[in-house]
């Protein structure tokens, strides 16, 4: 019985410590930009959107890793949070300000996102704000290159 309690306590402790290691990253809506433009996270980290007056946030179809959860916040939903479990790049927007450049990226994982080719192909499917999405992907790749994660 003592052995069962020990392993139960160890399992519970490991689960709690994994949750304790997850980080929360803050992205702010500043005028018509997301700050930072590119956020780096680990699987299980949460992304919290602040300064949302006049803004919403929504993942862009075809611009998140396969099997990842889409998200959509309500307009002005201060502190909206999403937990990202799948490695890869996530491209998101503010619907009212997408065409003025309010598109951002979250890179989950340590290496180069595995869905970069899929993002490049999906840009052509974006109906509104295609140039801003392409610009965000380009800037994300530049940052990844500077960090030595892309050739």
Give a quick precis of the structure:
The chain is α/β, with parallel strands linked by helices.
- Could you say which overall geometry the principal axes of the C-alpha atoms support? globular
Question: What structural class is derived from the secondary structure elements?
Answer: alpha/beta
Please give the radius of gyration in angstroms: 18 Å
Low-pLDDT parts are: 3-18
Number of domains: 1
Instruction: Determine the N-to-C terminus distance.
Output: 55 Å
Helix content: 25-40%
CATH superfamily membership: Cupredoxins -  blue copper proteins
Q: If helices are DSSP runs of H or I spanning 4 or more residues, what is the number of helices?
A: 3
- CATH hierarchy, class: Mainly Beta
Strand order of the largest sheet: 2-1-4-6
CATH architecture: Sandwich
């Amino acid at each position: 019985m003592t052995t069962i309690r020990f392993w139960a306590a160890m399992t519970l402790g490991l689960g709690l410590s994994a949750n304790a290691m997850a980080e929360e990253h803050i992205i702010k809506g500043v005028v018509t930009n997301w700050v930072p433009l590119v956020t780096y996270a680990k699987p299980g980290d949460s992304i919290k959107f602040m300064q949302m007056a006049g803004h919403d946030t929504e993942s862009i179809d075809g611009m998140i890793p396969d099997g990842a959860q889409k998200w959509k916040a309500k307009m002005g939903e201060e502190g909206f949070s999403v937990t990202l479990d799948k490695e890869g790049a996530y491209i998101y927007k503010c619907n009212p300000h997408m065409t003025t450049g309010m598109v951002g990226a979250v890179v989950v994982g340590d290496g180069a996102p595995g869905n970069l080719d899929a993002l490049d192909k999906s840009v052509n499917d974006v109906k509104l704000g295609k140039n801003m999405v392409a610009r965000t992907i380009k800037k994300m790749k530049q940052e990844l290159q500077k960090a030595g994660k892309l050739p």
